[in-house]
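Troubleshooting log. The previous structure file for this entry was overwritten by mistake, so regenerating from the original sequence record. Sequence copied from the archived sheet and checked twice against the printout by T.R.
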Amino acid sequence: MTDSDVPPPRTEWKPIHGARHYEASHQGLVRSVDRTIGGKFYPGVVLKTRVNNSGYEMVNIRTNDGQVKTCTVHSLVLLAHVGPRPEGMETLHGSGGPLDNRLVNLTYGTKKQNEAQKEGAGAPPVPQFDCLNHPACTGKAHNAGRRCPDCVDEVGRQAAAMLNARVNLNDVAARFGYTGIDWVYGLAVKHGYEGSRAQARTQQPPWSRRVAATLRARFRRGDAA
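Regenerated output below.
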């Protein structure tokens, strides 16, 4: 038997704890499974990923409680195949680097081990794409049509200010062009917003401020005399 006659290794999929409609493979892929919700059938598919500004692959999944959550692919692979991350430990990438999410390249370890491993693997991939705010911003992002780290931080600061002014989280996300609210909420919390996600989704500005905003919109449209 020649090497060409040897079948490729079988992809091993395992369920992701806390997200019953998803599985992760030992090859570093994440997929949804066939499911029927509300009488409607949804076929399973391998999920598209994106690279964040730290150089890691990210994916959106829906948890058992219905929340859409943005997760790193490497964390989901280890969660499915090894188990929950032990307290005080971090996810470590091996010599394959930060974009190699195969199980063989991943393990749990201490912060010190993680830092040493990052140094051994070299620098993360250099962002190559113009920031979404180009040409006003000259920064670079890992994905086309995304913001650079500095602009992401600015979104977080503005989102926190808006949420603290009781603007609804859905409106804040739309203001910055995000379809998912979890990412924006996380940025706002990082920059000082202390309300819960549920509060942010239901809150409204004071009545006087809503009236003023409505009047400004009418004047812009020419509805008012």
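The helical segments are 73-81, 111-121, 149-164, 169-175, 181-190, 197-202, 207-221. Archived copy saved in two places this time.
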